[in-house]
């Protein structure tokens, strides 16, 4: 299966996925390309060092969101993807883009959805005083951070936490559950039923 990963920055989730692949934990998959919308995305160097094709498509070079997404789709489709993985890709995608990849487009979000969709999730979790926080891998649908949930990981929130300590605790879990979700997808174990993602037991 061909996987295309989209990043905007540091790319630590992409790195975790690549390392899981290299360790044989995602059988039957290859990373066809890592695409960034910023030339300064830190993760690009790691991908290149690991022999993965990279591309940069700068959204600022396009007059509209639609024009950027059309070019992005053409770039991605050139790699015949079975799965498109958003890994810290900081662009809201158009309905046309999301529809085109429906069922093969996944994202990781740093909260226990449906709590705290959107930005600044760790600060908002601390502000709300929740005792559990975490991360969610979900299919992407037109509504932001609302698609069918594939896997979640919860972490405790400690009284002495700040944004940095809490985000680090969540990030460690992100690096575990994103490769897990991808291995399930590649193995054909995830199905959508009534708008929910179900994971079949391994045979
Ligand atoms: C992660 O916290 C992810 O959940 C969010 O953006 C961050 C990306 O980090 N969507 P990285 O680029 O994978 O290191």
Description of the structure:
With 203 residues, this protein is an alpha/beta fold. The protein has helices at 12-22, 43-49, 65-77, 95-100, 121-128, 163-186; strands at 2-7, 30-36, 54-56, 83-86, 105-109, 132-139, 149-156, 190-193, 196-199. It is built from 6 helices and 9 strands, in the order βαβαβαβαβαββαββ. Strands 3-2-1-4-5-6-7 form a 7-stranded mixed β-sheet, covered by helices on one side. A two-stranded antiparallel ribbon has the order 8-9. It starts with a strand and ends with a strand. The chain binds 5-O-phosphono-beta-D-ribofuranosylamine (GRF). Residues 7, 9-13, 87-88, 108-110, 171, 174 line the site of 5-O-phosphono-beta-D-ribofuranosylamine.
Q: Which helices and strands appear, and what pairs or packs with what?
A:
Blueprint: E1 2-7, H1 12-22, E2 30-36, H2 43-49, E3 54-56, H3 65-77, E4 83-86, H4 95-100, E5 105-109, H5 121-128, E6 132-139, E7 149-156, H6 163-186, E8 190-193, E9 196-199
Parallel strand pairs: 1-2, 1-4, 2-3, 4-5
Antiparallel strand pairs: 5-6, 6-7, 8-9
The structure holds 5-O-phosphono-beta-D-ribofuranosylamine (GRF).
